[in-house]
Amino acid sequence: MPAQAPVSQAPATRIVVDRLDAHFGAVHAVRHVSVDLSDRSVTAIIGPSGCGKSTFLRCLNRMHETIPGARVAGRVMLDGHDIYGNGISPVAVRRQVGMVFQRPTPFPTMSIRDNVAAGLVVMDHKPNSKQTDEIVERALKRAALWDEVGDRLKTSAIGLSGGQQQRLCIARALATDPEVLLLDEPTASLDPISTQKVEELIYELRTDVTVVIVTHNMQQAARVSDQTAFFLGGELIEVAPTERMFTSPTDERTESYITGRFG
Amino acid sequence: MTGPANSRTRAPSGRQRAVAERTEGTIRRRRIRSAIMVGLMYAAALIAILPLIFIIIHLVRLGGSSINVDFFTKMPKPPGEPGGGMANAIVGTLMIIGLASAVGLPVGIGAGLYLAEKQATFLATTVRYLADVLNGLPSIVMGIFAWELLVRPMNHFSALAGGVALGAMMIPMVTRTTEEMVRLVPISLREAALALGYSRWRTSLSIVLRTALGGIVTGALVAMARIAGETAPLLFTTLGNAFWSTSLKAPIAALPLQIFTYAITPYDNWIAQAWAGALVLVAIVFVISLAARVATRRRFGVATD
Fold first, then answer.
1. How confident is the model at residue A191 (pLDDT cuts 50, 70, 90)?
2. Which residues of A fall below an 8 Å CB-CB distance to B?
3. What is the model's pTM?
4. Which CATH superfamily is domain B71-297 in?
5. Is the per-residue pLDDT at B38 higher than 70?
6. B77 burial level (CB within 10 Å; 0-12, 13-18, 19+)
7. What CATH number is associated with residue A198?
8. pLDDT averaged over chain B?
């Protein structure tokens, strides 16, 4: 556990990653990573391209194994239960752990409303149409998109701008009320204004969701996260509260990276 | 100091002029060559559609006069007797297209989905290759196959056998277009659905297939248009029928067969009827193709191609 903060905001541990290894065929992409992620906090994962940070993220909702030839070993405890445990269905895991990708992925055949509701229709207790409307509205408001699209929910999601599409995808991920939200470079294909909106959103989300964000942008990591983890060559080099990480990293490789000497 | 500076601003030297002339000559030559190539492309495009234009003009000229309400509602008349129609053949053709689609579409779409999902497995590679071979199979061979498979065991020609023969022809076409369309759906969409907690099959059906639907519908309609005019397989299977029949178990009339039968007779009114039948057949194909185009434009006005 990291150094204790004052009791009022003492974070409970939400996810415990225990000696996680991930492979793509012969490539050992994530090497023996162990880390704790606190409840209601934002963890940023930084590191150069190909360091395994996206693969690590994709292990947290069992998306990694959807790629042919991919393997995972180790444990990922979500609220004390191993998501790789016997009899645990990856589908059930993904319903609790939402994910947003680098490029916006609205479903092109669906309206804005149906896109946001897309995760609801596969839930065990499917909400009725009226409840769905309410959930969609709430999700869009949380994703700061309601003001822009509230009057055209029935139109195609393809008509939205890139930044709006990405916030739509965040709304879609939030609609099912996930406990954990994984963001894989969510602003990499966005303009600065959209990026700012998404960052503000991430900052607000921490009050009720555990967020893990992979980013190439170190300022972004510094702005939005409580805790930062640095990956290099598939290994977790260092993890620390963000402020400490960017002011006095303990590992010299971390320091080289964040001061721009490589990567 | 003034010497060299002046020489630079003065009229171009001989060498510069030569370069300029050469450049101008090159550009002129390129323009001419470009104009010739563009002209050739226009000519090729025109020649490509010319046969269709001639066919339609010809069909309208020779068959148009026989097209009237009777042609669609009346039965064929004996040679020499004026009037009559091809109601039985038109209905027969539509029934056979329907039957063929009932066989070809589910199998073809299912197989295409399988090929797209399991791209590199041995079975998928084999099926893909065999589908291509089947696509190039002469249609008369398909007729013989259906004859052996259905007509001989049943001991009589039937609409069913014709539908199966044409359906078998549709399968590889629909399989390949479905596969292509499904593969055009980005992996990111599939991942987005999986990440929302969709199971694999649900992702395939409600996200991937739905996204590819416009293209698949187009492919299906194109395949229907292709088989609508097939004659050879029908010779071995449905045989044709001079009378009204909508039974699947009995021989049934079909436009291509009726055209063939009428066109080789010496009777003028039958030959005119054959032309009219050909015109109606082309119209059916045209309507199906048009439907294919409309189908791709629907859905929020976004074309899939």
1. confident
2. 61, 63, 66, 91-92, 94-95, 98-99, 101, 103, 105, 107-109, 118-119, 122-123, 155-156, 158-159, 169, 172-173, 176
3. 0.75
4. MetI-like (1.10.3720.10)
5. yes
6. middle
7. 3.40.50.300
8. 87
